[in-house]
Structures are given as C-alpha cells and as structure tokens.
Amino acid sequence: MKLGVAEVFRSLQGEGGDAGVPAVFLRLAGCNLRCRDCDTRYAWEGGEEVPVSLLKERLDALPCRYLVVTGGEPLLQARPLERLVSLLSAWTLTLETNATIWEPRLLGRFHLVTASPKLPSAGVGPFPREVFSKYMDLLPPRLQVKLVVDREDWDEVDRLVDGYPSLGETVPLVIQPVEREENLEDYLSRAREWAETFLERAALWGRKRVRFLPQLHKVLWWGQWGV
Ligand code: SF4
Questions:
Q1: Is the minimum distance from the CB of 33 to ligand 1 under 6 angstroms?
Q2: Nearest C-alpha to atom 6 of ligand 1 is from which residue?
Q3: Which of 4, 72, 166, 183 has the fewest CB atoms in 10 Å of its CB?
Q4: Ligand 1 within 6 A of 94 CB?
Q5: Overall domain count for the chain
Q6: CATH number of the domain bearing residue 167
Q7: For the packed helices 78-86 and 52-60, what is the interaxial angle rounded to 10 degrees?
Q8: 77 Cβ closer than 6 Å to some ligand 1 atom
Q9: Is residue 36 in contact with ligand 1, taking CB distance under 6 Å?
Q10: Is residue 226 part of a domain?
Q11: What's the pLDDT tens digit per position in 112-162?
Q12: Is position 227 within any domain?
C-alpha cells in the first residue's frame, strides 16, 4: 500500500490553535480543488509513491511525535492514510482538510481535525455545506475551523457564524488572512487591515473561541517551501 507524498519536513505548526508547536508535516499529493491563492500548488499533482511501511520509518526517524497531515487534500488517499495512522499510536495526529470529503472512520483516528471550507475569494464555487455540516455535527470536540479570508469573504464568514451556533464556541474558529502579496511587508500590512475588521466582527459575533492568526511560518520564513 502506497501514499503519494509531496514532502515531509519538520517545522513549527504555523496555523490554528496549536501554532508554534514543533511538528512533522506530511504533505500528501493531489487535490480536488484549484484555489486561486493556493500556496501549495506543487502538491496538486505528482508526488513520490512511498510504501506505507517505509513512510512510517521515515516519520519515526524524526525527533518529534506531533504529526500534521496536510496537502493537497489528504482525504483523497483515505485508505492508505488510514493504514499509516493506524501504525502511529505514539503520535499526536492532526489533519488539515478542505472539508469537501467525509471519511468518518479515518477522521475518527485524528486527535485534531482542521476543516477549512473555501470562501468566495478562493474562486472554487460554494463549498458543499452538507459535507461541512457533518464535520460540525459529528467531530467536536476534535474539530477546529480555519477560514482564509480576503475582502469579499467577510459576509460569508458572518453567514457561517450565524448558521452554526457552535462555531466559535465548542468548535474554535481561526481566521487567517489570505496570502497574495509578493513580500512579507505587504502580507503583514493586509493582516493588520483584516485584524481591524476581525475585531469589529468578533464584537458582533459574541463568540468566545475565535482568533485571528497570520501564518507563523510565513512571518518567520517568507517565500520558503518545506518550512
Ligand atoms: S484545497 Fe488547499 S491544497 Fe487544494 S487548491 Fe485549495 S488551498 Fe490548495
């Protein structure tokens, strides 16, 4: 059994509630979307076909037991991924998904799932709300939601908060500014602008578990891959 792997590396978790935690990233190849501002286009296709047993050995050789399975869209490789994570009982297992695919048995193996439905600025059309609702209904307390926002997305964020009373309460909500700029200074400038918008909206939402977080790895290592 093999997994299509784009890259494996050790770094800091740059997003979400565990930002700053040392982590091993397993980026799987292949994605079912083509988001306009995707920062991992190199993982859309291809990748190295690695036997699951060999991949486990590679992971175990790294000095860390916190795994982030990401992509691409990792749930496209559900069966071999399930086999891999079944071998990693000593690890804290986390998964990042665009929440267009529902694989309950596999999702149930992760300690934390980050669902990131795509908003209008991604340019991939409306996300499948019935699939996302399964995440919201069935995965807490092991679920967090990450929304990557640009100017045109805030109204949709409002609708999501309105539509899901648990969002920002039992399910933490992380808002992340879109990365579109060509340099760190512009990224931070936009992040500051959206931070102001976030503060205004958060006051209206009145939810306790919401946070605004630029990507830590972008701030530290702008423009580099595999960090
Ligand atoms: S779902 Fe993620 S990996 Fe796929 S195109 Fe969108 S941002 Fe890129």
A1: yes
A2: 35
A3: 183
A4: no
A5: 1
A6: 3.20.20.70
A7: 50
A8: no
A9: no
A10: no
A11: 999 999 999 999 999 999 999 999 999 999 999 999 999 999 999 999 999
A12: no
